[in-house]
């Protein structure tokens, strides 16, 4: 059964639209079989630092958090090659989109949905990623937590999308590959499609996704087009 009453589609960025693993993959000539472990640890520390800074009330933008997480990960894995950090950070600024993203966003726009990104990323990071992926023409808004000074899943982040789009929470379909984010948006009151790219187990958190998919290519067929 399709989700009805949806007027806007809002997307997480990292891991949902943009492949965070593509940064380390771009350094495979140096990292070899350590690209996977670096990607996993870097991502884990990036999220941990974002959440811990939120709890401490010590917000720093996601570029700094990402760099701090990379420094920890390179040190933990003993990766000390000159220039590697700068190369990885440069690649993170222009992560590859997942292959279905452009066609999916184009389809949603043609069907009359408003579209937006709602991300932990800083405005500069998101601008670079969107421009590099060439998906700007199909996005009405690119929203950063920098506007509220706290990271997802704080409710004020999801409220930012409601305020900027002028759409009630239950008329928004929120898509994320992160279980904690999907559940957080659901607990806030959004309709949620969890793009479970990584085969995560269901969370034991407030909220629950309305639908679970493996690829965003499935999304347009799940949504009833808004009334003209």
UniProtKB/TrEMBL annotation:
Q: Which domain of life is it from?
A: Bacteria
Q: Which CDD domains match?
A: HAD_L2-DEX
Q: What is its EC number?
A: 3.8.1.2
Q: Which catalytic reaction applies to this protein? A: an (S)-2-haloacid + H2O = a (2R)-2-hydroxycarboxylate + a halide anion + H(+)
One annotated GO molecular function is: (S)-2-haloacid dehalogenase activity
Record-linked Pfam families: Hydrolase (PF00702)
Keywords tagged on the record: Hydrolase
Q: What class of enzyme is it?
A: hydrolase
Question: What PANTHER family does this protein's entry cite?
Answer: HALOACID DEHALOGENASE, TYPE II (AFU_ORTHOLOGUE AFUA_2G07750)-RELATED, HYDROLASE, HALOACID DELAHOGENASE-RELATED
| Family of this protein | Belongs to the HAD-like hydrolase superfamily. S-2-haloalkanoic acid dehalogenase family.
Function according to Swiss-Prot or TrEMBL: Catalyzes the hydrolytic dehalogenation of small (S)-2-haloalkanoic acids to yield the corresponding (R)-2-hydroxyalkanoic acids.
Name of the protein: (S)-2-haloacid dehalogenase
> Native species of this protein?
Alsobacter metallidurans
């Amino acid at each position: 059964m399709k989700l009805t009453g949806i007027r806007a589609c809002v997307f997480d960025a990292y891991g949902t639209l943009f492949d965070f693993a593509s940064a380390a993959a771009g350094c495979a000539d140096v990292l070899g079989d350590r690209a996977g472990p670096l990607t996993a640890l870097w991502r884990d520390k990036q999220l941990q630092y974002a959440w811990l800074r939120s709890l401490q009330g010590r917000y720093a933008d996601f570029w700094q958090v990402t760099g701090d997480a990379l420094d920890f990960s390179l040190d933990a894995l003993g990766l000390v090659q000159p220039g590697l950090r700068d190369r990885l950070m440069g690649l993170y600024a222009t992560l590859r989109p997942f292959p279905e993203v452009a066609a999916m966003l184009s389809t949603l726009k043609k069907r009359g949905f408003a579209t937006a990104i709602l991300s932990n990323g800083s405005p500069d990071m998101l601008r670079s990623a969107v421009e590099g992926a060439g998906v700007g023409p199909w996005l009405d808004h690119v929203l950063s937590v920098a506007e509220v000074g706290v990271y997802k899943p704080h409710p004020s982040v999801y409220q930012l999308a409601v305020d900027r789009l002028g759409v009630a929470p239950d008329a928004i379909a929120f898509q994320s590959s992160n279980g904690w984010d999907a559940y957080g948006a659901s607990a806030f009151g959004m309709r949620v499609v969890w793009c479970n790219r990584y085969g995560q187990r269901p969370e034991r958190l407030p909220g629950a996704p309305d639908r679970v998919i493996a690829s965003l290519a499935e999304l347009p067929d799940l949504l009833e087009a808004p009334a003209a």
